[in-house]
User: What shape does this take?
Amino acid sequence: LKRVKQLPDGFVWGGATAAYQVEGATKVDGKGKTMWDDYLAAQGRFSPDPASDFYHRYPEDIELAKLYGLNAVRVSIAWSRIFPDGAGEPNTAGVAYYHRLFADCIANGVTPYVSLHHFDTPKRLFDDGDWLNRATIDAFVRYADFCFGEFTEVQNWFTINELISLAFSQYIQGNFPPSHHFDVTSGIQAQHNELLAHARVVNLFKEKGYAGRIGLIHVLQPVYAYPETPANQHAADLEDAFMNRFLLDGTFKGEYTDATMALIDELLDANDAHLTIEPGDMEIIKAASTQNDYFGMNYYQPSFVTAYAGESTNSFNGTGEKGTSAFKFKGVGQHVKKPGVDQTDWDWNIYPEGMYDMLKRVATEYPNSKTIYITENGLGYKDEYQGVGQLINDDKRIDFIDRHVEALLQARVEGVDVQGYFVWSLQDQFSWANGYNKRYGLFYVNFDTQAREIKKSTLWFRELGRTIGG
Ligand code: BG6
Assistant: This one.
C-alpha cells in the first residue's frame, strides 16, 4: 500500500448512494411518486421497497461508514420527498428527514456530498414530459433554490447525476421509463435540457451567494475503435460525441464546439433526428461553464466499437446472463468485445486504463472542470452470503477497485487534480434495471432481514483508507 501515501491529507474517501436505490419508504411521510413507482409496479419484477431501508437505517450505515474508515458519503435528496408533486409547498416531514440524515453524517465526521437529482423525477413532472418539457427545468430551479436555502449544513452540492445515462436509458436503450428505443431526437434534447437546468442552478447558486461548492456529475465512458481502422475510429468518434463530448463541451466550454457538432449532426442525420436550441440557452450555459467549483466523474467501463450501417438494435442484458448484451447504433457503431479485456457478469468491460484516459482528457481539454472527484466506481457482482458473521468473499471487487485506484494515482502523479474517490456503492442497494442480485456494496445487505454484513473488500478498503490522510 506504499503508493497510497502519495495521496494528500484530506483526500475524500467515500461511499456512494442514491435516494431511490437505498431509502425504500416510498410511501412514507408524504413522499410523492417518482417516474419509477408505477413503472416498476407494472413490470412486477422488483420493488423499490424497502431497498436497503436507508430511510430508517441510515444511522447504522453512517456508523459503519465511519467505522470502516470513510470520511465522506454521497447521497441524493429525493425531490419527491421535498415537493411530492415536484412543485408547490414543501413537505415538512421530508425536509426533516434530510436534516436528520445530514446532522448524523456530520456528527460522525462523514461529510455529505449531495445530489439534487439522481434518476428520480417526480411523477407529475415526468408525466408531463420530464426533461423534454421546459417546465421541469423551472421546477428544478425552484427545488434547488429551496434546498440551498434550507440545507445550509450541506457544503458540497451536485445538481444532476449522469445526465447522459438518464437520457440514454430513457430514450436510446429503453430500460428506464418511458422506455423509448433509439428515439434519438429525445435522447439529444434531454441532454441539452438537463444541461440547461444544471446551468441555471449553478448561475443561481452563485448569484445568490450560497455558501459551499457546486458542480455536476457525468459518467464518462471512453470509446475505443476496435479493430483500429479509420472507419472504426470514426464510429468511435461519433459515439464519443453523443456519450461524452456533447455534455463535456457544454458543461466546461459553455458551447458545443463546431467539431463536436459536426459529429453530432452526422449522427442525428443518420437517425432522422434533430436538436432544438432556443434563443438564450447558450448564454445561460456559457455563464455557468466557468462557475462550477468541481467536477464529479463516474467511471465504470469503456466501449469498443466497430462501424455499423444496419438498423439499430439493443438486447439489454438485465438478467445477469453473460454474453447476451448487444448494442448496434445505426450509422454510428456496434459494440464489440476486445480480446483480452475481461468482462463482468453483466458484460461490462473491466478496463482501468479508461479511467486514466478520461482523467487525463478532462484535465487537459476541460480546465474549467477544476478539481475532479471520482464520484462512482465499483463492481457489480453476485456476492454470495456466507452466513451470519462470515466474511463474504469478493476478491474480484478488491482487484477491480485496486486497479482503478491505481489508475487514479497514476493520473494524479501526472498532474491531474483528483481529490477524492467514492466507491459505488456504500451498501448493497437496488440496481435500477437489474434489481437486487447485482451487488456493488462495501457492506453486504441481507435483503430478507436487512442485516448488514462485512465483505472482504470492506476490510481491505479500510486498510487502503488508513494509509491516507483525512
Ligand atoms: C450509475 C448510476 O450509472 O451506475 C447508479 O449513477 C447505478 O445509480 C450505477 O446504480 C450502476 O449501474 P447498474 O445498472 O449496474 O445499477
